[in-house]
Amino acid sequence: MEDLKVPLPPTFESLEDERLHRKQRLAAAFRLFSKFGFDEGVAGHITARDPELTDHFWVNPLAMHFGHIKVSDLLLVDGKGEVVEGNRHVNAAAFAIHSQVHAARPDIVSAAHAHSPYGKCWSSLGRLLDPITQDVCAFYGDHALFDDYTGVVLDLEEGKRIAHALGDCKAVILRNHGLLTVGETVDEAAFWFITMERSCQVQLMAEAAGTPVLIDKDNAELTAGQVGIHLAGWFSFQPLWDRITREQPDLLD
Ligand SMILES: [Zn+2]
Predict the structure, then answer these.
(1) What are the tens digits of pLDDT across the range 33-71?
(2) 85, 103, 139, 210 — which has fewest CB within 10 A?
(3) How far apart are CA 248 and CA 41, in angstroms?
(4) Cα of 178 to ligand 1 centre, how many Å?
(5) What would the DSSP string read from start to end of 193-225?
(6) How far is the CA of 213 from the centre of ligand 1 (A)?
(7) pLDDT under 70: residue ranges of the chain
(8) Is pTM beyond 0.70 here?
(9) From the CA of 63, how far away is ligand 1's center (Å)?
C-alpha cells in the first residue's frame, strides 16, 4: 500500500519565505472571518509575529473590510505601535491588546480577536465553556475568562491584564466583549477562533433547549489531547485555506 500523506506545517529556507507564508495565511484568515460573519464595523484584528523582527507584528489596516484584505494591504507594526510598513493606520485597540499578548507569549505567532456574534453573546454570561461536545473539548482546561470590562481597550495596561488572564491558554473570553485566541501559527489561531465561536453558538442553543449532558473529566481531558493540540488546530485550518484561496485567489495579491 502506498504511504498516505498527511500534511504537516511547512518549514522554510529563508525568513522572507516564512514572512510571506505568514502574511498569506493572515490574509486568508481575514477572508474567512468575513465569510463567517465575524466582521463588525472596524472591530477585530488578527496578528502574525514577524519571523525576523520578533517584536513586530503584521495586522489588518484600520477600517478596511476583512473581506477586501490582500497580502499587500497588511501593515507591519513595531513594538511602539508605529506602522513601519504600509500606509494606513493601525487600530489602537489592536495594538493595545495584541502587542501585550505577543510580548507575554513568545511561544505564539498569532492572535485573533473579533466581535463575532455568538462569542459576544456567550461572553456576556461571564462563564467558561463547558465540555458538552467533542469539539469544545479543544478548550477544556485551556481557556480563561477576563472577568472585567472597562470600555474600549486603548491602554497598554489593559492589554497586559488581558494577556495575564490568558496565561498559558489558547483562548480567553473577554467578558461583555468577545473572544481572543492564540496559536503557534496563524492557521491555528484562526481555527481556534472559528471553532470557539461555534462552540459558543452550540452551548447557547443547547442551554436554550434543555440541560446538556457534560462529558466527564477523564474523557474531556482525553479528547482535549486529541482535538486541542497545536497540530490539530493547524491541520483543521487546511481545508479552509484550500476553500478560500480557490474562491478568492486575489487575497494573495
Ligand atoms: Zn474588541
Answers:
(1) 999 999 999 999 999 999 999 999 999 999 999 999 999
(2) 210
(3) 21
(4) 7
(5) HHHHHHHHHHHHHHHHHS-PPPPPHHHHHHHHH
(6) 32
(7) 1-3
(8) yes
(9) 14
